[in-house]
Amino acid sequence: MAHDKMLDGNTAAVEAIKAARVKVISAYPITPQSTIAEKLADAVADGELDANYVRVESEHSALSVALGAQMTGVRAATATASVGLALMHEIVNAAAGVRVPIVMPVVNRALASPWSLWCDHQDSMAERDSGWMQLYCENVQDVYDLTMCAYRIAEDRRVQLPCMVCLDGFFLSHSMQKVRVAEQAEADAFIGPYRRHNSYIDPEDPMIVNNLTSSDEFTEMRYQQSRGFAAAAEVMEEVFTEFQERFGREHHVVEPYRLEDAKTVLVTIGSMAGTAKYVADRLREQGQHVGVLKIVSFRPFPYRQVAALLKNAEHAAVLDRSAGLGAQGAPVWLEVCAALQSMGINVRGYIGGLGGRDISMDTIRHIFEDMAQKDTQVCEEPAWIDLKENPMNIRQVLKHV
């Protein structure tokens, strides 16, 4: 039977990777992901996990080894964060294009520069259109559950796409929480054995992989990937339903909280969702009609479900943990706006929690208060909700006169 353990987010990811019986691990440490690599090394050294452990020289090599190994017909594992994911960029796209369903924890950390070890979502958001599915975790139990589900979703023959399971650096990666962990037999029954499809490496049946492709076929191959994403939206709910039947925990691609009569809804992603729910409860006690909508699957983006769940709202606030530099708004806001186009809902974008800054109860409360004062349908720019006073005075580059 399943049992409870006290785990941090990185260890929860390791437990799910072990449950999937991966056979090749290619590891390169980077804060705050390093303990995933370390704990997987311990599991192999102790005989707890029957796998080959490869110490590579970079994150680019880590994903390359995982890609090659998985094409031989076994599950492979790696994990990364921040500039490590950025260094993987070439192979991130290669894995997606070759349609190899790798599952990779991404421990969210800000990209340089300025240099930071702490959490925001710019690293994974920079890869949002690379052809990988992306699932975002609210808590440590989510890390375990969504990683387990990701194997089934990615490897489904209708999907065949790689998947990032994104967990907020330090807020989840190093946060100890009680987690219900399945017995190996239960995990085996749910995840099942790995079966390779599409491109593969086999000396007895050689093929050319990721070859130079002319414009005569390139568009159609991209279209095939888009069909995989279209199928993934349906497969995710199928897998989540089966997961609930087996393990008793409910997950969805997007999860509503107290939306039944909500006039103002805060759209969240990642660990901030727990804080947002708590604040919504307190404001409800004061008679305010507020709610929360948590995005779990950012890729594929559940635009139909978002539109259906927000159709009765008067105001929607979208809090992004990435800046969306150069765009009218940040990535989650842009997707929500597209989903709600022509619905007449005031959609306001907020940016906060960058570089590890805490998204506190006061920050969430400030957003709800700010939305209560908005009556315009169009907001030209996002609000930097937790910006310090006189921000241009902090190590400013340009002197303003």
From TrEMBL:
Coiled coil: none annotated. Residues 16-240 form the Pyruvate flavodoxin/ferredoxin oxidoreductase pyrimidine binding domain. InterPro entries: PFOR_II (IPR033412), Pyruvate:ferred/Flavod_OxRd (IPR050722), Pyrv_Fd/Flavodoxin_OxRdtase_N (IPR002880), THDP-binding (IPR029061), Transketo_C/PFOR_II (IPR009014). GO terms for molecular function: oxidoreductase activity, acting on the aldehyde or oxo group of donors. Residues 262-363 form the Pyruvate:ferredoxin oxidoreductase core domain. Pfam families: PFOR_II, POR_N. Keywords: Oxidoreductase, Pyruvate. GO terms for biological process: carboxylic acid metabolic process; response to oxidative stress. Belongs to the pyruvate:ferredoxin/flavodoxin oxidoreductase family. This is Pyruvate ferredoxin oxidoreductase. It comes from Anaerotruncus colihominis. The gene is porA.
